[in-house]
Each structure stands twice: as C-alpha cells, then as structure tokens.
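pinned: reference chain
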Amino acid sequence: MYAIIKNGGKQYKVQEGDILLLDKMSLEPKATVEIKEVLAVNAGELKCGTPFVEGAVVTAEVINEGRAKKVITFKKRRRKDSKVKRGFRRDFTRVRITKIAA
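pinned: its structure tokens
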C-alpha cells in the first residue's frame, strides 16, 4: 500500500515505515502529524482524488528537525566583471510514516 501526498508544493510517494524530509513544521520529537493532503492511495486499486482523496489520512511521527547541508550557487558572466555567490540551507522536519488510512 502506498500513497502520494503533497507538502510544501512538492509531492512524495510514501509507504509505511518510510522516512521523509518535509518542510519545517516546528514540532517536538515524537509528536504525530496527520497529513490530509493525499492526492492518491493504492490499496489494491488506485484511488485518485480531485484534488484530494476524501477521508484519506497519512499519519507520521516526528523524528527530529534540522538544517540540510549548504548549497552554494555561483553565477559569473564572463568579461562583464559580474559575479554573484549565494548560499542556502533548507530547514526540514524528518518524519517516519506510521499509518496510511484510506
């Protein structure tokens, strides 16, 4: 059984026991999260929502929160004496999928 969920403008295919990095939710470890934005559920047959599946809930347990490694973007325009260097670190919440209820 798997489900396709939406979080933070991104879509994830999840099964029970999977570990995901979702956008930061400011929750304590061991807290439970119910994700109601379920786009599709496959329990033998695929059930797609318009846009979400009615009554489908994915339950997850928060493991921890943190920040990802820094990603550096560097743009340079040759012969123009123009360069830009930027860094970005994503804040995330690590969760474990505990239950998929269709």
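why pinned: The chain has a mean pLDDT of 96. The chain has no helices and ten strands.
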